[in-house]
Amino acid sequence: MDVAFKNMMLVNKRIFRHNATANAVYRLTIDDPNPETVLATDERQTIKKLDGKMIELTVKAIKSPPKAGPATIGKEFLDSNHYLDSDNKEVQQLAQQAIGDETDPWFKSRRIEGFVHAAMKIDGASPFVPASKIAKDPHGDCRQCAVLTAAMCRAAGVPSRTAIGLVYAESQGKLFFATHMWTEVFVRGEWVGIDSTLGEGRWARRNIKVTDHHWHAVNSLTPLLPLQRALGKMKIEVVRFDYK
């Protein structure tokens, strides 16, 4: 995993069996006038404002999308663009290689997740480039994994976007959250996360989401800027984990 120590936020206790949890509850202190707006709220994450600059964050585990749901989504999550250039020949070839004969959108996404995880050579010094360049030379960190995964999903007809936030990790005796980027796919009417960097085969419950983006009509790194509201301004306390 490409966790950067320079962006780590130490936590108070170890998270045991994080992929077996049903819900995670954190208490966060954020040095921001509106701390409840720093993190995303969606199907996974709910935020409760506490006193001052403190919020309570509950993260719900989503193993897989619902069995059925509305299938419509905006074109910005399917169309090729500068960074998620899903119309590129190499990206399309990799997507077809990854999904094989699979026709279900969710299992297409899962196959792509595993394919990118196996193919990517971890390199934290790689620049942020379009998916087509990553497809030709698959190396990079969580950013490149997320971008290539999202583009391959679109090439396979699955709506996608990237998400940025934090991920729990342990290294050299330290327990911490560090900056991270992953992919979300729209399947059966719901956004569900996949993470080709971790490659755990199921949605990691240790991720805290700051924001997401479709990258439509974007030629810069502005979709990553919301992360700056959290870096160096946040203290995370693990309150409780509920196990099934």
Describe the structure.
- With 244 residues, this protein is an alpha+beta fold.
- The protein has a domain at 5-9 and 64-228: C8orf32 fold (Roll).
- The protein has four helices and eleven strands.
- It has helices at 89-99, 105-119, 131-136, 142-155, and strands spanning 9-10, 21-30, 45-49, 54-60, 121-122, 139-140, 160-171, 174-187, 190-194, 207-213, 234-243.
- The strands form three sheets. Strands 1, 7, 8, 9 and 10 form a five-stranded antiparallel sheet that branches.
- Helix 2 runs antiparallel to helix 4.
- The protein is globular.
- The protein starts with 8 loop residues before the first strand and ends with a strand.
- The model is unreliable at 1-5 (pLDDT under 50).
CA-to-CA gap between the ends? Answer: 26 Å
The count of DSSP E runs of length 2 or more, i.e. the number of strands, is 11
Q: What class would the helix/strand composition place it in?
A: alpha+beta
Tell me the number of helical segments per DSSP (H or I, 4 or more residues long): 4
CATH topology of the domain at 5-9 and 64-228: C8orf32 fold
The CATH architecture of the domain at 5-9 and 64-228: Roll
Shape: globular
Task: Spell the H/E element sequence.
Answer: EEEEHHEHEHEEEEE
Which CATH first-tier class of the domain at 5-9 and 64-228 would you pick? Alpha Beta
Fraction of residues in β-strands: 25-35%
The average pLDDT value, as a whole number, equals 90
Strand count, sense and barrel status of the largest sheet are: 5 strands, antiparallel
Helix content: 10-25%
Low-confidence stretches: 1-5
Radius of gyration: 17 Å
